Automatic annotation (TrEMBL):
UniProt cross-references to InterPro entries, sorted A to Z: A-D-PHexomutase_a/b/a-I, A-D-PHexomutase_a/b/a-I/II/III, A-D-PHexomutase_a/b/a-II, A-D-PHexomutase_a/b/a-III, A-D-PHexomutase_C, A-D-PHexomutase_C_sf, A-D-PHexomutase_CS, Alpha-D-phosphohexomutase_SF
Protein's UniProt name: Phosphoglucosamine mutase
Keywords: Isomerase, Magnesium, Metal-binding, Phosphoprotein
Species this chain originates from: Flavobacterium macacae
Short name of one Pfam family: PGM_PMM_II
GO cellular component labels: cytosol
PROSITE patterns for this protein: PGM_PMM (PS00710)
Enzyme Commission code: 5.4.2.10
Example GO molecular function: phosphoglucosamine mutase activity
Amino acid sequence: MTLIKSISGIRGTIGGKVGDNLTPVDAVKFASAYGTWLKQHAKNEKLTVVIGRDARISGPMIHNLVVNTLIGLGIDVIDLGLSTTPTVEIAVPLENADGGIILTASHNPKQWNALKLLNEKGEFLSGEAGAIILDIAEREAFDFSDVDSLGEITVNDAYMDIHIDEVLELPLVDIEAVKQAKFKVVVDGVNSSGGIIIPKILELMGVECVKLYCEPNGHFPHNPEPLKEHLTDISELVVKEKADFGIVVDPDVDRLAFISEDGEMFGEEYTLVAIADYVLSKTPGNTVSNMSSSRALADVTKLHGGTYEASAVGEVNVVELMKKNNAIIGGEGNGGIIYPESHYGRDSIVGVALFLTHLAHKKMKVSELRASYSQYFMSKNKIELTPQIDVDAILVAMAEKYKSENISTVDGVKIDFAENWVHLRKSNTEPIIRIYTEAKSQEEADKIAFRIIDEIKAVAGI
């Protein structure tokens, strides 16, 4: 059990000891620190924060603690209730709020929860702001309001519908073309918020929707990270239903993966590739993804005459580089789509609408669309961390071992070989070292990964 503090928010397992896990005391402490930071930096005298949560079991408990902590600080709360990460992100500026909190541990299993913190633009906080908030929490430098200055709660449960309306109004979303295509799609909502919002937008776009695990009860029927090994049920159902494809989202709906009509994975890395292909074909420009993402995005960008750049891992890093390079689309290879025309945040709802439009225009099977892109294969592995493992020393040793290659140490260690690459880094969301490799065959990607893992274990003495 553990508590992780990073650019991805305050994330931990429910229960256990204060300071070691995400206990009620920790939830109150970090909500207090965030609220205190807002009061120190916001321009408005009376502050407002938007709050939403995914459907995980601990959600109502953490939600009540966080909301009432902000009220105690004299901050008004707009409570969206059950929601999605991108929905909260668009709600913050629409409500002219000073910040937002999404209560979700994203792709982590049900024992986890987290506070994802947003600024007044509905974007994730910078590393500098996060460091200040952690310092406030450490010092417990809180000053709560008196009884006449407490905040107030306003409940607004309409924002998932507002979000859908915003997406359907995007110029590149062609509802009529999608309706004419008469798609049939299976949706795995992993029994969270995606089980509500994804079927709703599909129905509005004229798509026949077959629901799988779409009851938002927080009992995840499989590991909620949208990886091939977790998605056998939907793969089988897509084939059984003779559907055009399947859609899978994680509990807070900021990661998107597709299943082809033959039951095979489209590949979460290729979610961004396909949608960028469509966006770039209509509005040429630049792209950004993180350095753990596939080279296929760079290939597509070059094909459309744009420039591709890679950021450090983490949504805030991707967004920062997208703004710097005027990228018109970007995201992360884990199925995260960031489309600035809508907002600067990973958004599966935007991704679904753009992918459907792309497929309707292409008039081809999903498997054929996948085959039209550069063929790369990734191997995603991890090593569980213990207190005895010195991650920094491991990374330094690996960088030294491969110093004759093209090395980047912007985020962990990335080694670019001529035909493949490997990226080693400490996770922002779990107590693990991630080892990602990419090559032109799955066999080669796995071979490189296993070699690197053996080398890491030798350095670490494990």
